Amino acid sequence: MTKCKGESARVLAVQSANWSSPASTEARKAQARRAYVEALTIPDPGDQLRARFTALMDLAEARGG
Would you say residue 41 lies in a domain? Predict the structure, then answer.
């Protein structure tokens, strides 16, 4: 399996999943948004879709949903 660019952002989001302060939540949201935008540059459609989905799931988690 190839490592996609968004995977490093996913690792950061998972590592920070226990943050609970409002500032930390905003940082997690911002990180997920950056990961999504970065995923748009991945040329392989399958890898791009996985990275975009992961970023959206991270954003939903950061929002508390």
Answer: yes
For the question of whether the overall pTM of this predicted structure is more than 0.90, the answer is: no
Q: Give the total number of structural domains in the chain.
A: 1
Determine, yes or no, domain membership for 1. no
Structural domain includes residue 17: no
> Pick the residue with more confidence: 63 or 11?
63
- Cβ atoms of 42 and 6 closer than 8 Å: yes
The span from the CA of 28 to the CA of 56, in Å, is 12
Q: State the alpha helices, DSSP H only, in 1-65.
A: 6-15, 22-39, 45-63
